[in-house]
Design brief:
The chain is mainly alpha-helical. The protein is built from seven helices and two strands, in the order αββαααααα. A hairpin with a 4-residue loop joins β1 and β2. α1 crosses α2.
Length: about 150
């Protein structure tokens, strides 16, 4: 499996948080001694911890479930973006079939990493911007800003 060390870093950070370690400046072994490093904003880690605590699963299984949920969540967002862009039903269906059958996306959809979450929030930001442009209003500005901040983190 690709990027095992990256997945291991995510799971190490989650285990440290579960055992009472820091929730933002957690220690990670980055090519040597563990250092306190805000590697990335730990929203994915926090979601995994919440599922592990309330669902009772292992951090690895919970991380894969969260990743899969976000992978599936990108489908309606992507289809909506395509609809706003003027893509035909056939084009949207072809996109859906390619997305669901792409080995690269299938691989990352169950990885213990937050990449599918980042993809979801980035596409959500694009969708909100498209809706705001389509309606030419400030109605979605706060939602656009919040999704933009999450995508940036």
């Amino acid at each position: 499996m690709l990027f095992r060390s990256r997945q291991a870093q995510t799971l190490v950070a989650i285990r440290q948080m579960l055992s009472g370690g820091p929730w933002v400046f957690y220690e990670l072994p980055v090519m040597g001694e563990p250092i306190r490093l805000p590697h990335e904003f730990p929203l994915f880690d926090w979601l995994v911890i919440a599922l592990a605590r309330f669902g009772g699963g292992s951090p690895l299984v919970c991380a894969r479930i969260i990743s899969l949920i976000f992978w599936i969540g990108t489908i309606p967002v992507s289809v909506q973006i395509l609809r706003i862009a003027g893509a035909s039903r056939i084009t949207r269906l072809v996109f859906l079939l390619l997305y669901l059958n792409c080995p690269l996306y299938q691989h990352w959809s169950h990885a213990a990493m937050g990449e599918t979450m980042v993809l979801f929030f980035t596409l959500s930001l694009i969708l909100c911007a498209s809706i705001s442009k389509e309606r030419r209003s400030e109605e979605h500005t706060s939602e656009l800003q919040s999704r933009g901040l999450i995508s940036y983190a």
